[in-house]
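I would like you to sit down with the pair of lines that follows and say whether tokens and residues agree.
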Amino acid sequence: VLENQDLKDLIKPQNVEFRSLNFNSTLHWQPGTAGEARDTVYFVQYKVYGQSTWQNKDECWGIQNHICDLTNETSDIQEPYYGRVKAASAGIYSDWSLSCRFTPWQETMIGPPMVTVVHSNKSIILKLQAPRSPYKRKRGSMVPMTNYYDLLYQVFIINNLLDEQHRALVYEGKDKVIKIEDLRPGVSYCIVAKTYVPMLDRSSAYSSRQCTML
């Protein structure tokens, strides 16, 4: 028969970590080394670094998921936070498993811009829109990530006659409307874009490709 202490250790959650995209921040973990019994449930707490008391996250109290949304709880984006998780199974509770320290402003990943393509004769006109944060203005619209960072847009063009992997950088800057000129009629071009944060030297993933035939 397993001792209670052994069971406590075997169900203790593993690899507790924050993941964050555009300040949508979630705590993730994996089941303990024993794997997961059917009745295993998890409990999540969080706190700001330096505070002595932990807060329960009510929506993540006794849940079966391995993910907990802490976007609202980490909305002071310059503050460092911790999360922790414990498991219960068959009436036995594990110890808490702690995340690393998480500071949203430094660690959130920035998403790519939204790209809209409007083509004219021998040129392509692009409209770029910054990714949005989950936080709302007083009037209800979402605050763009440009409120929090000095963002640059990087625009790449893929000439479908050439190598698919060859993405040529055609623009880097802050403009929201960009014109790419001197293109060949009858050729299919695709556009992808990234958001770049110079201060953190960090780029987003590529946007989904927008293709057009001139």
The chain has two domains: 1-106, 114-213.
